[in-house]
Amino acid sequence: MFPVLPSALRLLLTPLLLIVNPELVQDQTVLRNVSPSHIFSLRHEHAIANGSRVLFADVSQSYLAEQHVVNSRMIQTYRPSSFGAFSLARETYLNGMTDADLWVQSTIPAPDVEHRETLLTLAKMTNNAYYAPADKEWYALDPSWGNDSYPFGWEPDADGFRGYIFASEDNSTVVLSIKGTSGGWIVGGGGPTTKKDKLNDNLLFSCCCARVGPTWSPVCDCYSGGYKCDQTCLQNALTDESLFYNVAVNLYHNVTYLYPDADIWVTGHSLGGALASLTGATFGVPVVAFEAPGEKLAASRLHLPSPPSTLHITHVYHTADPIAMGVCNGVASFCAIGGYAMESKCHIGQVIKYDTVTKLGWAVDIRTHSIKRVVEEVLSEDWEPTADGNLGRSVPEPGYEEDCVDCFNWEFGDFKTKSSDEL
């Protein structure tokens, strides 16, 4: 039995049309350091229940004392002219639509991803998406943080999409923190969401329905023999309303209803980071994703139209993480042993890559995937401290993944249609 929600919050708020009224600009350069820092506090918990319903609840007043300071900058992004237009483009596969047909350019505040403490704060918010506020693994950034927890959405029978909502003091900016895969072998200690987390991992990041070998049980019926996979079947497998991407879209609509004038930022770790990126690609909002598996393949299969620029999406990961690097695959990998077909490696947007293998001597190891390691061992100090009068860098310089190809040894086509025609 869910508790009664405050009157200001409503269930099942799914507007049919996203209206965007952006400020048009001509200059395509990033405008840095023209917006003040934001102070965020925890406002709501969100969770998925009974299929794809997104539910909200206020957190206890004792948690409102916790504050998270995030520096911002102004960036230029491309948003769909309306959600209806975006949905039509997906349905008709019009990925080649021109800016005039779909995209509208605007200038919006975004996290300053070249500021280490901003990344650190977002990473702590992301870590906390795995835990109730009273859990010992929760990062409390302020001594006045309470010990009570508001359990809405975290009961044993709540087995789906989870996260938290942080809002700035004046409600001008809202951060959605989306939980990633819960599993004792990665982070989060397992729990009731593990089964659906694993299903989404294997749908979004495998080459063909998690068909790694003949002993695997695939998550969809698209394998067509050899290294052949039916493309239409794959696309249809991602249309289920309970798929976490569709839930994330529903969540975004709910939040924009609750905060109609706020700028929305999205963050997440692992699966949560990939879902954050797909949400940002859909709505043109800023994203910071930590240690996420490659989601570019999933975006293509979801027929997400590609905007002229995706620099509003930033992936932060290190070279010792086999999941983010796209090398946790093959029948002998730890991912495969755990039943996860993490076969994609290409990311959307820009990348801030920490070379922990070269600089820190880390071995490539699934245990380095944990967001806690990122918080405490990667983001805890400047990457290149200032020395001998030389200017260092707070974080590695953002870059791009060049010549990245997913599933190059697979052939995709209408194999099931051809087989039916031959009968």
- Derived structural class: alpha/beta
**DSSP, total strands:** 13
> How large is the radius of gyration?
21 Å
- Name the average pLDDT: 79
Can you name the CATH architecture?
3-Layer(aba) Sandwich
What name does CATH use for the topology? Rossmann fold
| End-to-end CA span | 52 Å
Q: What is the 3D form?
A: globular
Structure, explained:
This protein has a single domain (38-205, 241-406), classed as Rossmann fold (3-Layer(aba) Sandwich), CATH 3.40.50. The chain is 24% helix and 19% strand. It is built from twelve helices and 13 strands. The chain has helices at 83-91, 116-128, 194-204, 231-237, 244-258, 271-283, 296-301, 322-325, 334-337, 356-359, 371-378, 415-422, and strands at 38-49, 53-58, 68-70, 72-80, 103-111, 162-168, 173-178, 228-230, 263-269, 287-290, 313-318, 350-354, 411-413. Strand 1 (38-49) and strand 2 (53-58) form a beta hairpin. Helix 2 (116-128) packs antiparallel against helix 11 (371-378) and helix 5 (244-258) crosses helix 6 (271-283). 47% of the residues are buried. The model is unreliable at 1-35, 59-66 and 142-153 (pLDDT under 50). It catalyses: a triacylglycerol + H2O = a diacylglycerol + a fatty acid + H(+). It is an enzyme of class 3 (hydrolase).
